[in-house]
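task queued by scheduler; priority normal; single chain, no ligands, no partner chains; default sampling; output format set to C-alpha cells
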Amino acid sequence: MSVHEQFAEDLALYALGSLPNDEQAALEKHLQECAECRQELEHLRGDMALLALSAAGPAPPRGARERLISAVAREPRMNIAAESRQWRMPLQWLAVAALAIFAALLWRQNAGLKSQIAQLHAEFGDQRAQLDQAREVVDTLTATDALRVTLVAAKTPPQPQGKAIYLRGRGSLVFLASNLPAAPAQKAYELWLIPVSGAPVPAGVFEPDAHGSAAVINPPLPAGLKAKAFAITVEPEGGSSTPTMPIVMVGAGE
C-alpha cells in the first residue's frame, strides 16, 4: 500500500470531521506535503456540499455521489452485530449454567425436605401406635365387663391370706381371711394384735367357712393402742389369753 492509499482512506472521515485527533494530526501533516491528497480532499468536500444541496435542490452529479460513497465504503467499519453476538453467546451459556446450578440446588433441597417429611411421618406413626397400644391397655384394665382371673402354680393349693384394717384412734378393726384350712377338732383360729410395747392382745376368735373365708369385725380393743403387727394362732374354741405357738400367719403394719 502506497502512502497516498494509506491516507486516502482517512480523507473521507476528515472531510466529515469524524477522524480521531491523533490520526487527524498525522493526516494534516501529510496534507501539507502532498498536493495530490489536498486535491482529493477538495474534491471530497465539494462532493459533500453537492450531496447536501441535493436534499432541497437538484440532484448532484452522479460522479460526486459515487466518489463519496466509494470513499466512505473504503473506511473500515466495526462489526457491531458480530461483536454483540460474540458477547451474547457467553452470556447465554452463563445464564444456562446458572439456571442449571439453581435447579440442582432446588432439587437437593427438595429431596432433603422430602426425606425429613418421611422421617417425621414414620416417627409420628410409631408414636401413634404406642399411644393406641397404651390406650388399649388402660381400657382393658378399667373395663367393668372384663374377666379377671388369678393364675397360680399347677397342683398347688391357694395360699392362705389375711388382711387387717385398723383405726388406732377408734380402736376399730376389720379383718378378712381367705383360703384358710379348717381348724382341727375342738380348735379355732384366734387373731392377735401385737402392740409396739407390751404383750399381744386377743382380737377375736373365728372359724373359716367351707370356702376358707372368715372375718372379724370390730372386736373389743383398747382405744389408742398402737399396733406393730397382727398374727393368727390355733387356740381352743373358747380362745386364749396368750398366744400358743406356732404362729400360723403374721403381718407387720406398713
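post-processing summary
- Residues 3-74 form a domain with the Arc Repressor Mutant, subunit A fold (CATH 1.10.10).
- The helical segments are 3-16, 21-33, 35-53, 62-74, 80-142.
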